[in-house]
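Thread: "does anyone have the structure for this chain?"

Original post by V.I.:
We have the sequence but no experimental structure in hand. Need at least a predicted one for the grant figures.
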Amino acid sequence: MTRNARRCLLALMLSAAGVFAALPVSADSAGARVARLTDLVVRTVPLGEVFTILAGDSPEWPMQEKPDAVSAGQLACLRDELSNDGYRRMKRTEVIAYVAENPGQADADIAVLEAGGAKMMNRLMLAGVEQERTGVPVDEAKIMGEATADELAAFMQMMTGPEQTALRKLLGIGNAYDAERSAEENESAGEDAGADLATKVMLKAMSNCDVPTDVLFQ
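Reply from O.Q.:
Generated one for you, tokens below.
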């Protein structure tokens, strides 16, 4: 990403901070707030969709390299935990705790995600998965160029705004993006964050399915 592009995105982020901070607090009940935020979280970081794509490649996924390490029941459990529905269940539990701890912040996070943060991250992540599957490079400039100014501002607010630090932790992306880093550095940080998140989700699924982690090292 060029220096001018980074400056433009930083300007959008700074202008967005005031806009999103000024939005009215939602009147949603706690249950409705949890449902909305859960939907947005699983859309923003669509690991459930990614897992579903991978599961379609092999009936033995995610144990295709060690099919004899688990029973048929354990494999079925893992595939269910790592499905769209399973991933949503997992994130909903985290969202419930997050909303309870951050009731006011949750409304601001919902606003940022609905304004474009969720859409932009979803498109970039799924494009990255397609790149890995096909070898065709992701045209990030095209994806960003197709977004509106408001969507870009929301995306930058989500990725770098200090008000969304807790949200980034909930999403599992942490500080994977820094407008002052090079495109290569951000890509590497993003890949590391994605791998770490996928590993955590996988380990959680293994725990829920009573699959010992030592099967990974057999």
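V.I.: this helps a lot. Residues 1-19, 21-25 have pLDDT under 50 and may be disordered.
O.Q.: and The longest helix spans residues 103-134.
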